[in-house]
Amino acid sequence: MELYSLTIHELQEMLKKGETTSRAISDSVQARIKAVDGKVKAYITVTEAAAASQADAADKQRSSGSASPVLGIPVAIKDNMCTEGTLTTCASKILGNFVPPYDATVVAKLKGAGFVMPGKVNMDEFAMGSSTENSGFFITRNPWDLERIPGGSSGGSAAAVAAGECIAALGSDTGGSIRQPAACCGVVGLKPTYGRVSRYGLVAFASSLDQIGPITKDVTDAAILMNLIAGHDRRDSTSVDLPVPDYTASLARDVKGMKIGIPKEYFIDGMDPAVEKAVRDAVKTLESLGASVVDVSLPHTAYAVATYYILATSEASSNLARYDGVKYGVRASGAKDLLDLYLQSRSQGFGPEVKRRIMLGTYALSAGYYDAFYKKGQQVRTLIKRDFDEAFKKVDVIATPTAPTAAFKIGEKSADPLQMYLSDIFTISVNLAGIPGISIPCGFTQNNLPIGLQILGRHFDEESVFRASFAYEQATDWHKRRAKL
Ligand code: GLN
Q: pTM for this one?
């Protein structure tokens, strides 16, 4: 096995025994990027020289006895998280020249633990999309089938992990953007509870929904990264001041006595039968491991996509007002006056999906429509959250498909925004409710495309999510398959 194809915990073992060095790992990842990124196109910015010196520094630090679990491990960062001195574009032309003067808290935490940053990875512009086709720069391709999308919006993160172009990655998830690309690329992706991980330095899309989380090759690596990035941050007032458990301690292979809820609303007409079969088989596996399966109902599921597209676009229209071509980012030349400067900079800088969302959100928030749309959306959001509260009175976790189909073809849904929006039908409610959710590999379609199983937990109960997903993972070997490029 090449170094780039291993997990964080496997590499840590090797590093501990002196069988490899951080520099060798970083070089292996960089060589892999050179070999395959021309096809996959996961990276917006590759920071090869900085990675080499971070790796050397990690090797030095290790020889002096210190070893955090990510010391010297290459973790790619989605391009909507600020990295001091390194371009951070959100895959938008409007931030095409933005070099942040500070690190996002998650990046600062990883730096403090001695990680290596191989570079910044592609995404849908401002995280708006489910396929990475909305990147303002280029499309990322699925390592399992280059004609297909890697999912989105963290498509660069998931594709880079699946292709061995990093050891792990960070993504962000507003309506499914960690879990759906993880499912499409056959890797693990966790959206933590809202408030569990600081978003300071994460460029805002929809602030009441956005969360940062890990995208990794297996569940253990996700727990390792969560141990490092979770926790209160006085710079993010929505981060919650609760103790952070050792998530690796919940990886105990044991689900005996655990109650797993199956919501009937998540097995719908129009979903791929191969997805349904893989998810139902996964539930049987969990049952055979000692969990009991309970039918639950989440009756307001049908309203989730509509509610999300009112609330997320409203928040986006407000958050994106700051890109005016004046303070930072790209400024149009030749404007007649200030208003024209705003108009030109925004018209040239934003792509079509971002413009659509700004218009939708501005409309939903405008006087006379606010009550009918935004306020109503907030009320329905509460109903959706209550559905989960009720279900979690009966069960410890809930299992569903992550997405209704495996990765679709590039171009298949880009002409029809509504079809694209429906890719997130199983992930969006989770953000509206604020609960944690993971996607783990649970099979392949006939075309050898990965399928994702989603496991959801109560607020701040990532531990049960980890426990169930680790037990399943250890009983199967889907996560050991690697895309052949
Ligand atoms: N696909 C959803 C959207 O387009 C979710 C994106 C995300 O989670 N960032 O908004």
A: 0.98
